[in-house]
Task: structure prediction
Amino acid sequence: MRKLASILGLAAAIGGGASAEAQEKLKVGLLLTLSGPSAVLGQQARDGFQLAVKDLGGKLGGRDVEVIVVDDELKPDVAITKVKGLLERDRVDFVVGPIFSNVAVAVHKPIVDSKTFFISPNAGPSNLAGKACNPYFYAVSYQNDQNHEVMGKVAQNRGYKNVYLLAPNYQAGKDSLAGFKRHFTGNVVEESYVPLNTLDFQSELAKIASMNPDAIFTFMPGGMGVNLVKQYRAAGLADRIPFLSAFTVDESTLPAQQDAAIGMFGGSNWAPNLDTPENKRFVAAYEQAYNAVPGSYSMHGYDAALLIDSAVKATGGKTDNKDALGAALRKADFKSLRGDFKFGTNGFPIQDFYAVKAAKRPDGKFQTEIVEKVFDNSTDAYAKECAATN
Amino acid sequence: MADTLDAPISAAVRPKPVLRAHLLPLGLFLAFALVPLVAHYGGEGYVLSIITRVMILGLAALSLDLILGFGALVSFGHAAFLGLGAYAVGILMAHGVEEAGPQLAVAVGGSALFALVTGAISLRTKGVYFIMITLAFGQMLYFLATSLSAYGGDDGLTLPTKSLVFGSDLLERGLVFYYLVLGCLVASYALCRSIVASRFGRVLRGTRENPVRMQAMGFDPLHYQLGAYVIAGALCGLAGFLLANQTEFVSPAYMTWQRSGELIVMVVLGGLGTLHGAIIGAAAFLILEELLSGVTEHWKMIFGPMLVLVVLFARGGILGLARGRSRD
Amino acid sequence: MTTTLLFVQTLNGLQFGLILFLIAAGLTLVFGVMDFVNLAHGVQYMVGAYFAAAFTAYTGSFLYGLLLALPATLAFGLLLEVLVFRHLYDRDHLDQVLATFGIILFLNQGVKFVWGAAPLFVPVPDALSGSIQIMPGLLYPVYRLAIIGAGLGVAALLYVLVNHTRVGMLVRAGATNAPMVSALGVDIRRLFMVVFGFGAMLAGFAGGMVAPILSVEPGMGDNLLILAFVVIVIGGIGSIRGAFIAALLIGLVDTLGRGFAPALLRVVLDPGDASQTGRAVAPMLIYILMAAVLFFRPSGLFPVKR
Result:
């Protein structure tokens, strides 16, 4: 009992100390997955955000900033507790996160109910873009379907007749294949779902080899993607059947896939070799600071900080007038690393999308590189369902 | 296998003076009751939500302790009931039933029914085989939940509101919900305490110590074990109902085998076979998690060895540690 | 087409089953001989994969990497035994569960602390890369055949060790009645150490072998641990033969179930329902199998007589 009391006392001390400073420092809570097998994605977003804060001289919108990083452990109920901590103990002005859509769906309600601005550096679930859109929620990334749509469009443009689809058996996997089919009108020879956390794709590869499609499209995030790519290459399929993917071959998995992934395609809104001066500076600085090639998660983290910076600057450093701050966020008056960027009515970006390809750089590191622009100033499919007025 | 589980348990439940035995749990509940008074110093909603979570998972751990500590039935699928209770709320909500009454009935009744069916099968086995068969049923339910695409599948499902009480949104008020959870915890504790002290409880403990003798005395051990299993399942279903309402979110993540493992860890950490030990274990587990994760990203490298040290140097968990020190 | 597919799927099931066997063999011995519930067995598999990856990167050769990883996992297993496990042999199962759970938390985070959160890269060795044609129009990776070969080799070696050596005899005797073995003047502590270290090395070997085809990442052992427990429970605790048969059974049921459950259900359901139900049922199959086995044989298929 005494222990409980002392813990509460400690919590009180933290809370009390923090609220005294609240007038001075701008507070941003980062809610990211930092443990478990997917931790690398959260680290990239965090590092990108913190790099931006450093580049802006430790200030956002002219105010000193305090960044509070918490780990959602990829458990929705844990994330809700952590978010309550950010909102009510730390009284943050912005919540930036999360990586995964199931966490985003879970924490959306408590954050927007408290009228705190919620900025996603990755997750873009369809209901938050459509019916459940909210003036307090912004995604600097994409709607989840969009990278898959890019690949569908590419398959269509290249005139593939027969495509084999492969995804994990969960909601994002199903959404992924639905997104692919939105722009692809050819024949789907098989729509195959494997259990989440599948280690071994040999049985799928056997089926692919026997069906011999014109291309495969897959969505295999994280470790699953590493396994699939290595095994696809080892089975000798990589040179025979083009490999189209989303969130499968990117800078978070390339260090483990290396040569096995070269020549495989992905859909993205950005790549490290995108030729803008801001982006070149960012990639160089990121590699210098963290000794890794940044992925789109890092880029979104960086852009999230730039977005907050632009909005707080526009309100003259004030965060108490929520309407003014919301209007400033909506303007997205900052120079995104990906070039053209603005928000649609639902708080999701209107932006370009590219087909990218994994490649080895002269210095021996691996990255994705832009092959072609597929969509120009593209809006997501759910924006029209959004009824948000401002 | 099962007989190796017994020795320390009997040490933990040896009789103590009545008043002292009740002092610690009473103090614990009093502390819970007083938390809201000091909570506003540390971000009220945050402290309340942590302690609410402690009490809900404490209730789940308490229900596990009833079969684990007193029946030596190590269930490795206990989180399934947490999920069942939560999904009862989520699915009924999705069909427009927003009243707490019917939701609670389905949550508790459904959990009891699931416990009855799976318990009747699982109790044919003993020891580690029982552990694994309960895991099997838990996993089946988990995979079922992930395939329910109408209810969010793997992503889970957000509740439109907390459950209504006769049409009023009383539970939306943080304090009301807090004390409701505390009430459920205290009532469940009292229920478990009286079960343990009753003839039923004595037979249950007897079946743990020596099932053959109990059978010779005319008790069928299976009936008593199954009865305890059903009660534990129903109480954990209640915890699931509360968890869904606290987070306003339902997800298959509530019933992973890792969560079942954490419940076992909470019970053993607090002190097996003491009932209030389970609640203390849940509190220690969750509050340490919260505090340590604030200190460093690598908090599990501190938390893990702490668990090892508790086992090595504190027989009987935290309660055992406290008892050991007071004796010195 | 279906027969070749069935053939390939069977090979895949066999390969998965053999990897499971390498992990389950150590687990069932530690459990059977020492009556010790070692949840940390899965992280030893992970540690083996990380050692293999690190040594491969250091030496530039997967073969040397794997060979160095073996003594390293052995030493690591013995270190854990001396520091923690030996103090827990006379404790009840739940204390062991709590302590080894703590070790899982520590090591899953520990590898991230040392090697970073991103998965590590291990190349398929050149000599074993590429595929061979086992049937017209059907290629099978050489490395996978190598895994099958290595798994069968280790199984044979274990059979000889357990059935035809003195240590093996003691291990078998220990699985049946450890106190009696001790009373006969055998240094049971040393026997335990040998069994434990050997089990850890087998798991580490499995981790090293799969490193080129699977992602080497924190927590990679957690799900395999559960599968390994399923295997030893179906096989009967303490029985190497049971573990071998159950591992192959699980490997085949899981692989074939995933491949063919939707197709089989199509016979009774319409295609949409079949693929939906098949997807839900396939991951449950091994648990249904385990529940069924335990329903009819409450001590597994090959219970060790006591």
Q: What stands out?
A: Confidence is low (pLDDT under 50) at residues 1-23 of chain A.
